[in-house]
Amino acid sequence: xxxxxxxxxTAMDFVGPVEALQRLPETTVRYVSxxxxxxxxxxxxxIMTERAEDVPSNLLLIPGGMGTRRLAFxxxxxxxxxxxxxQANDVLTVCTGAVLLGKTGLLDGLxxxxxxxxxxxxxxxxxxxxxxxxxxxxxxxxYYTASGVTAGIDMAxxxxxxxxxxxxxxxxxxxxxxxxxDDPARDPFARVS
Length: 193
Description:
The chain is α/β, with parallel strands linked by helices. The chain has one domain (about 1-175): 3-Layer(aba) Sandwich (Rossmann fold), CATH 3.40.50.880. The protein is about 35% helix and about 20% strand. It has helices spanning about 10-20, 70, 75-85, 95-100, 120-125, 150-165, 165-175; strands spanning about 1-5, 30-35, 35-40, 45-50, 60, 90-95, 110, 130, 135-140, 145. The strands form two sheets. The protein has an eight-stranded mixed β-sheet. β7 (about 110), α5 and β8 (about 130) form a beta-alpha-beta unit. The N and C termini lie far apart (about 40 Å).
């Protein structure tokens, strides 16, 4: 699997899902970015990455973070993500990582979700996506999008359930000592009118 990183990523957006997904057999995690090299977030976490176009995509994970606010309008990054997402068998996003994928046009007309605190910006930035206000995560076609931060773990376990069975997802959750919210519609952080 490939984790696409960029400056000012939110670490928990990918660390939690990676913890679950790397427990699958024969899973190798590779960290990629536009140019490769060290990528750092605001908390000082630095990750060495490979150049994204040098790594074939099978399962692509795109975290969110404050860096998405600027990068959503970076044509080079959006073009690269479009190609990576087209190649991948499955694409998972967490938080505002959905906006980066949304800017590729690949989510147009599909259901998706993102961090509820950023939903006004998300909807304005990608108006052709069918944004779901009440959803812990959403699966539409090969795309899985999760709400904010820890929702990525629930989504990753939901993805594992869909691909490898409920028993596998529950075993991984127990191994992580994680209480899995296995219902994507149960969203305690949704803005309810």
